[in-house]
Specification:
Elements (H helix, E strand, L loop, with lengths): L12 E8 L2 H4 L1 H5 L4 H12 L14 E6 L5 H11 L3 E6 L7 H7 L1 H9 L4 E8 L4 H12 L4 E2 L10 H6 L2 H12 L10 E4 L2 H15 L2 E9 L2 E6 L8 H12 L4 H4 L2 E4 L13 E7 L5 E11 L5 E6 L6 H20 L4 E9 L5 E7 L6 H11 L3 H4 L1 E9 L8 H7 L12 E4 L9 E8 L2 H16 L2
Parallel strand pairs: 1-2, 1-4, 2-3, 4-5
Antiparallel strand pairs: 6-9, 7-8, 7-9, 10-11, 10-13, 11-12, 12-15, 13-14, 15-17, 16-17
Helix pairs in contact: 5-7, 10-11
């Protein structure tokens, strides 16, 4: 069901919806901490390649403007518009691409003129973004100073924006969980401490590794697997001095370990039968402070802790686990809301083999599953979690990492592409990523078995590229 904004006959239209995909701004201090400028550029470019996937976060809109850091394949845009029945999509691409998209917008005279000029046609602009960054808030302030009425339905006010980085950090969510754990015994994280500096961290980690046979080291706010180190039994020396030395050597490879707080925690062996070992629940806090539950899911995570995608459906999690992570999510969300946060957030969990559920981290922004959720509502209905099983991967590596074009891929996948009639099939979520040898996709099936059959067919087709 589309979000329809009615207008009175004559005069200005009520509002124009604007979407800004400022992915790199969410982790800019982390990106900036890379000592290698080539690696920094690679990280910024990879984030930019996720831009067209974010169109699906807007799948429920009839009309909107999308601001991107790089061009989007026109064929993909037409595919998205037809699939999601979008009648008016306007795309602005900034002249410069520094990674700080909102600053690039401010520096782009043409785009700023278009945004300010919209006040002649619309009463207000409704602007959402991937993350509420300082750059985003400054852009909003600048537009308001230029006489544009702006609504930010999924962002905290400037005075409450500290919640984004604090609760979205490893140390912040750990502090919140420890405080609330005193009131609720099943709300806990893996045993761990917050440290700083490579030397102290290495000593703590080496001691934990030798005693427990494993350890996890996390920088305060990493990105896409970077900033997380997982060491299992046999992967580090058994003697303390040698183990400590090896960890110091590894940490010194990346400058960010010395710049931010570090969490050292026990390695939990996940139970793959419970949401793949990594359950998740996503919520949204409305502008009035109401905490709204969106969905629970199982995450697809590799051995190094890198997120790949999610699975949603009634078969994903046992009811007791689904109920527990939903309740914990509400409890955390109420704290976020009380502190002024507004917008999307999720809670990642680890399902231990002994039946315990641990809070792992929280993403206080648009998440890796938000685009899938909004696409599913548009394509399969608001009750899709009861009538469908949905698989989603954001960066599936193509066979031999061969790149292909969207046109070729679309033709190849035609037999299994999503049909609104059957509410089943494959949705291709990005054209940009194909050039780097990755496929972003969503698969809808009437049940888990059917979704997995469609995924296997997709993989068979990919082998023929």
């Amino acid at each position: 069901m589309k979000n329809i904004k009615t207008d009175k006959p004559g005069g200005k239209k009520r509002e124009r919806v604007i979407r800004i995909f400022n992915c790199s701004e969410d982790v800019w201090p982390f990106i900036e901490a890379y000592g290698d400028k080539k690696l920094q550029k690679w990280e910024i470019d990879e984030n930019a390649n996720l831009t067209d996937k974010d169109l699906f976060s807007m799948a429920e809109e009839f009309e909107f403007t999308f601001i991107a850091p790089k061009p989007i394949d026109p064929l993909f845009v037409e595919y998205f518009k037809k699939l999601c029945e979008v009648r008016d999509l306007e795309i602005f691409v900034t002249k410069n691409h520094t990674g700080k998209l909102c600053e690039d917008i401010l520096e782009d005279e043409d785009i700023m003129a278009k945004l300010v000029g919209m006040k002649k046609k619309y009463k207000r602009l409704s602007i959402t973004s991937y993350s509420t960054s300082p750059e985003f808030l400054y852009l909003i302030k600048t537009l308001r100073d230029k006489g544009v009425e702006v609504r930010t339905p999924l962002a905290p006010e400037e005075s409450d924006a500290w919640t984004v980085n604090f609760y979205g950090s490893k140390s912040g969510i750990r502090q919140l969980t420890q405080i609330n754990g005193a009131m609720r015994s099943d709300m806990k994280m893996p045993n761990g401490v917050i440290s700083s500096g490579i030397i102290d961290t290495a000593g703590i980690a080496a001691n934990k590794y030798i005693k427990e046979g494993g350890v996890v080291i996390k920088t305060n706010k990493g990105h896409s697997g970077a900033g997380v180190l997982i060491f299992r039994k046999g992967e580090l020396p058994k003697k303390f001095a040698e183990c400590e030395k090896k960890i110091i050597e590894i940490l010194r490879r990346d400058a960010y370990w010395e710049k931010f707080p570090i969490v050292v925690e026990s390695l939990v062996q996940p139970n793959p039968r419970i949401g793949g070992g990594f359950p998740n629940s996503e919520f949204m806090i409305k502008k009035n402070g109401e905490v709204k539950f969106l969905y629970y899911c199982g995450m697809r995570v590799d051995r190094q802790g890198v997120f790949a995608g999610i699975e949603i459906g009634e078969e994903t999690l046992p009811k007791r686990v689904a109920s527990r992570i939903t309740d914990i999510g509400y409890l955390i969300g109420e704290q976020y809301s009380a502190d002024g946060y507004r917008g999307y957030f999720d809670i990642d969990y680890i399902a231990g083999k002994n039946g315990e559920i641990f809070v792992n981290e929280s993403n206080v922004r648009v998440t890796g599953g938000t685009h899938m959720y909004n696409a599913a509502i548009e394509l399969a209905g608001r009750d899709f979690t009861k009538k469908s099983y949905v698989l989603c991967e954001n960066m599936h590596t193509l066979p031999n990492k061969k790149n292909t074009t969207f046109k070729k891929l679309h033709k190849l996948m035609e037999p299994i592409l999503f049909s609104r009639k059957t509410r089943e099939g494959l949705v291709i979520c990005s054209s940009n990523l194909l050039h780097d040898g990755y496929l972003s996709y969503i698969i809808f099936g009437k049940n888990k078995k059917r979704a997995e059959v469609l995924e296997r067919k997709m993989l068979e087709f990919l082998e023929s590229i």
